[in-house]
Design goal:
This protein is mostly helical and 311 residues long. The chain contains 11 helices and 3 strands, in the order βαααβαααβααααα. The chain is globular and about 70 Å long. The protein starts with 8 loop residues before the first strand and ends with a helix.
């Protein structure tokens, strides 16, 4: 505590010093960012405009793409600036704002993935009552609830981090995140770690994940009751993309946050954070585009109409 200093800015130290490696990373992150923006904005557009996709599943998919667009935009542009200019500093306020935004969007995505699992459960297990269970008003209420809870969750972590005294300003990471900031603290971060484990790990992470598992248990039971092989295949195909995204998101997320501070490894965490914060928003539209027949059909029809308009 005696060595604490007043921090006005942090230095992001997680990038390589070698010019060739920086150029390669800049090109890689820029390519991923552009493809992610294009893919997610395309998903948002077709789920809003295509009349054949006006169902709760695609309603939530559109908002998932919106969250992913904001999510990657909260970190990658600043990474590109650092790689291009070698200007590593970020103001204390900007760092805290980036932290708040990242945690908010991560929490929103966790809960939204659980809501999407519930949507699949309602569609497969209760098809006759699906339109009542997943009416538009209820969809908006669930979406509002996800954003409200994730906002409170993010505010709690941000306030706890904001109150910590720091003994240095060098963040050995790619952006402002909870684990590297805890390592800079001059005091014991036991409270922060407990809240991180209890709130993020249990309520925002484990809670929705268990809900997803339970939903899919009922879904699998219902699917195996179907005698038609074609019917089973169709039901499984509607869930495949969602399951892939859940595995990627929760796998890397639990590795990043649900660990004691002394188990953090800077180099290992950088790689995981790239998968969690950069690759996942990129994979979401790709996975849904390849695994969902309706999305592929809508994209194909849209391309045909666009080509015809220029012919």
């Amino acid at each position: 505590m005696l060595n604490a200093t007043v921090i006005t800015e942090f230095n992001i130290l997680g990038f390589p010093e070698i010019a060739e490696e920086r150029i390669l990373l800049f090109a890689l992150f820029l390519t991923i960012y552009v493809i992610t923006l294009y893919g997610n904005l395309l998903i948002i557009t077709i789920t809003k405009l295509d009349p054949s996709l006006q169902y709760p599943m695609y309603f939530f998919l559109g908002y998932l793409s919106m969250i992913d667009t904001c999510y990657i935009s909260a970190t990658v542009p600043q990474m590109l600036v650092i790689l291009a200019s070698r200007h590593r500093s970020i103001s204390f306020g900007a760092c805290i704002m980036q932290l708040y935004t990242v945690i908010l969007l991560e929490g929103a995505e966790c809960i939204l993935l659980a809501i999407m699992a519930y949507d699949r459960y309602a569609a497969i297990c209760h098809p006759l009552h699906y339109s009542i269970i997943m009416c538009r008003a209820k969809c908006y209420k669930m979406l509002f609830g996800a954003m409200f809870w994730s906002t409170l969750h993010s505010a709690l972590h941000t306030i706890l981090i904001r109150r910590l005294p720091f003994c240095g300003n060098g963040i050995n990471h790619l952006f402002c995140d909870i684990p590297p900031l805890l390592k800079l603290s001059c005091i014991d971060t036991y409270v922060n770690e407990i809240v991180l484990f209890a709130v993020s790990g249990v309520f925002v992470g484990l809670g929705p994940f268990v809900f997803i598992l339970v939903s899919y248990v009922y879904i699998v039971i219902t699917i195996f009751k179907v005698t038609s092989v074609a019917g089973r295949k169709k039901m499984f195909s509607t869930c495949a993309a969602h399951l892939i995204i859940v595995n990627i998101f929760y796998g890397t997320g639990s590795f990043t946050y649900v660990r004691p501070k002394n188990n953090y490894s800077s180099e290992r965490d950088k790689l995981v954070s790239v998968i969690y914060n950069v690759a996942t928003p990129l994979l979401n539209p790709i996975v849904y585009s390849f695994r969902n027949n309706e999305i592929r059909r809508s994209l194909t029809n849209g391309c045909r109409r666009f080509t015809a308009s220029w012919a």
